Automatic annotation (TrEMBL):
GO terms for molecular function: alpha-1,2-mannosyltransferase activity. Belongs to the glycosyltransferase 15 family. It comes from the Eukaryota. This is Glycosyltransferase family 15 protein. It comes from Ceriporiopsis subvermispora (strain B).
């Protein structure tokens, strides 16, 4: 393949390495899952895997969020398998539901068109609520206020390797903001006016653009057009302080005011990715090659020298999404 070799996590971050003080360093972090009560079986499977591969050695607290109260069954089954503290929170209605000022006729027309065009989740209101919540609200939840870092986990994902280093500590000590494992193209039909909106924002607020940003990862013509590359946000290890900061707060409010979360189907993945690529330094974005990760239908399997062996990974390295034609890893490598 034509991909470069990813920069490895240094040895002394691994608990197993001699002279390591890795286990004594901790970050102010939580593992976060948004889920419905009906997701309980698949939520349990994801938690079980991440506990076995990582968290049983670290005992970071888990936070679960839902716009409906979690059932006793959900709470009991999750509490049974976590190694550290766990809390279950309710999303406030004004962080979840479509705001009153959205023109419902226009929103309905937008959904109907997407259904006709066979766009995935095109007709779903709840999916749009979820995307908007994940874009601009989760980090404001009361249960998350005490934390800086989060690891986003979804039901039914897989962790294919041992994670013997603390990715939160690595990010903190190396001044990172956002970590990903899979990057790909977005469906243009879900975000037809997003980039124009982003360009408008950049013109109005040039002061928020970082001088060493990663805009060339998502634009092949210096910012004129969007190449649809984004980080797949069902996996994220990131700083909530970045989302809480002035640049992203203004950015989210600006996007939200255009109504594109409902008139179109703007995803939290392109919204987060574009913001990180514009407002952070490109070296603050971390590709976690070492973390073997699967969300149907794609898997990232470590490709760095010795990483697959070290992590005792169960994934097939030759089937890693990194090499897929639909992957944006080439664009990512291009800007390194
Ligand atoms: P996909 O990965 O884009 O196909 O979307 P998912 O169906 O996996 O949803 C993304 C995340 O949001 C998962 O963690 C889901 O459990 C969660 N989610 C999606 N819709 C809802 C919802 O209506 N309510 C709640 N509480 N969680 C949701
Ligand atoms: Mn998912």
């Amino acid at each position: 393949s034509d991909l470069g070799s990813p920069e490895p996590i240094p040895d002394d971050y691994f608990a197993s390495s001699p002279h390591s003080n890795a286990t004594s360093r901790r970050a102010n972090a939580t593992i976060l899952m948004l889920a419905r009560n009906s997701d309980v079986d698949s939520a349990v499977r994801s938690v079980r895997e991440l506990e076995d591969r990582f968290n049983r050695n670290f005992q970071y607290p888990w936070v679960f969020l839902n716009e409906e109260p979690f059932s006793d069954d959900f709470k009991t089954r999750i509490s049974n398998i976590v190694s550290g503290p766990v809390s279950f929170g309710l999303v406030p209605p004004d962080h979840w539901y479509q705001p009153d000022w959205i023109d419902e006729e226009r929103a309905t027309a937008g959904r109907n068109k997407m259904v006709q065009d066979n766009i995935i989740y095109g007709g779903s209101k709840s999916y749009r609520n979820m995307c908007r919540f994940n874009s601009g609200f989760f980090y404001r939840h009361q249960l998350l206020q005490q934390y800086k870092w989060y690891w986003r986990v979804e039901p039914d994902v897989h962790f294919h390797c041992n994670i013997d280093f603390d990715p939160f500590v690595y990010m903190e000590e190396n001044d990172k903001v956002y970590g990903f494992t899979i990057t790909m193209y977005e469906y243009h039909a879900t975000i037809p006016t997003l980039w124009d909106t982003v360009k408008e924002f950049m013109q109005d607020y040039p002061e928020y653009l970082d001088d060493n940003n990663a805009i060339n990862y998502m634009s092949d013509d210096g910012g004129q057009s969007y190449n649809l590359c984004h980080f797949w946000s069902n996996f994220e290890i990131a700083s909530m302080d970045f989302w809480r900061g002035e640049a992203y707060s203004k950015f989210f409010d600006f996007l939200d005011s255009k109504g594109g979360f409902y008139y179109e189907r703007w995803g939290d993945a392109p919204v987060h990715s574009i913001a990180v690529a514009l407002f952070a330094r490109k070296d603050q974005i971390q590709f976690f090659d070492e973390i073997g990760y699967e969300h149907n239908p794609y898997t990232h399997c470590p490709r760095g020298e010795g990483a697959w062996q070290r992590g005792r990974c169960s994934c097939n390295p030759s089937k890693s999404f990194d090499y897929d034609g639909y992957s944006c890893m080439r664009q990512w490598d291009r800007i390194q």
